[in-house]
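yo

u said u wanted the structure for the complex thing, so here. seqs first:
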Amino acid sequence: MYLEKISLTNYRNYESLEINFSEQINLFRGPNAQGKTNLLEAIYYLAIGRAYRPIREDQLIKWGHNHCLLKGEVKNKIGRVNLEVILCDLEQAQKLKRAKKEIKVNGLKIRRMTDFFGNLTAVLFAPENLNIVKGAPSARRKLLDNDISQVSPSYYLQLQKYNQILKQRNFLLKKIRKSGRDYAELEIWDLQLKKVGEKIIQKRLEVLEKLTPLTRLMQRKLTGGRENLEFRYFLNRETEIKKGANLKSIINEEFAKVKEKELERGITLWGPHRDDFLLTVNGINLKLYGSQGQHRTAVLAIKLAELEFFKSESGEYPLLLLDDVLSELDQERREYLLEIILSKAIQCFITTTEDVSSFFKNDDNFTSFYVQNGVLQ
Amino acid sequence: MYQYAESLTRLIEQFACLPGIGPKTAQRLSFYVLNNMSEQQVKVFAQALLAVKKNITTCPVCCNLTDVTPCRICQDEQRNHTQICVVEEAQDVIAIEKTREYKGLYHVLQGRISPMEGKGPEDLKIKELLARLGDARVKEVVLATNPDVEGETTALYLAKLIKPLEVKLTRIAHGVPVGGDLEYADIATLTRALSGRREV
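structre next:
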């Protein structure tokens, strides 16, 4: 699929911007702090329907304005789709008696995010993605949850349901700890948590299983066949789920283990919100023993595998957004990456501070934009 | 600073106590009462307010709102006394009544299990429901709580209590609204309708 055009009004440092994109490589070049990443962020917003960094969304509105507008024209296998996001600050929203955020697909307001997903899919590779290997478990869960939600609306719904159950159950556990007496309804919340939790874990395992061969293939190509990457999924960060295991009985066992501690601490201590997966290269824990370069290669391999995953789930390649990563890669890896992008006709958006046109051959199809202070040339 | 005469201020304050009514609307309503309503109309209005507080009670059997004891539905021998439909709120009874399809009795829980709102089973009219199941006439309980996380939990909780008793237990189906086009149904509803599909 392709993003043909984007227009931004009062978004971050852009007052008014309208650009038509190339269906191949789009380069955003310019010095630091001019708005290159903001552009990628806007494109990614149109794919996932929210900001990918944890910020308050009204901070996306240009300073001194009360609303912002993002519009995108997408060409996918179904046809053309117009996406539109309007964000208002609180004051403006109250004045106009409308929601702070409104999303429209082809001019029609949507009520649920599940009606939005799938129109535009994108894979983002930013420097902070090294967190997938190095960071806390939440970074890895976020990767899975974001990717699966984009292709499976029912997964997104289960996640929402799970979070609601979790919130209610935590409330009840706190109440039990405070009062010291039993509550008969806890058993029912346990049941619900396990049931929905199992569905989420099941889907994550399914997707990891699909991602594994794809990532391994990419990793081998990036490393000349020397490295063999693998994912291992852990319940509660400690109990590994192996292929073919009886998930239901493991869940029951794990759940029973923490029950006493939960009542003591008044918080839910089991569930997919505490799971993690581990990356190993040739059987060695990458997080602990991998070098910086290995981390970067592994993340690149995962990102390339994500492209193939989206393709296999939806039948077309997503957009690829590369934030400041091209110049971080060595020549071999960079060439491999560009070869994939060009040979598979993936629409790509790249930000860079340097002149990287030398990375491309003359006949490569790329369009370069120079970004300076919220203006594109 | 000059203010409205005291009676008018009192009235504005009273209107402003109501949900969804801010100071401006309260002022507008008060002026409407003052300028556009006859004394007779105001009397009827005031009496209606008093009457609702005085006459409406909870039915001791089904816990629905009523002005007679027991309520008109529980009293009605034409209705099917073998079925009890369990709902969260009195409004749900009216919604189901509008279908004119269901002829059984109701039971209003007056809420749902939601720890965040401070509501547990002991806050709901569950004891009253179980007492009714002692009646040998009751053959079926229909669980019609809402299809969200809290309603589902309430239904599961009730199911656990009722299952051991010799009563048929059913849960209302969820799915696509009738008369609507499939294309207008949201994905959450459609997903549910698909997973609950049945053979024809």
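The two ends of chain A are 25 Å apart (CA to CA). The first helix of chain A runs from residue 36 to 48.
cya
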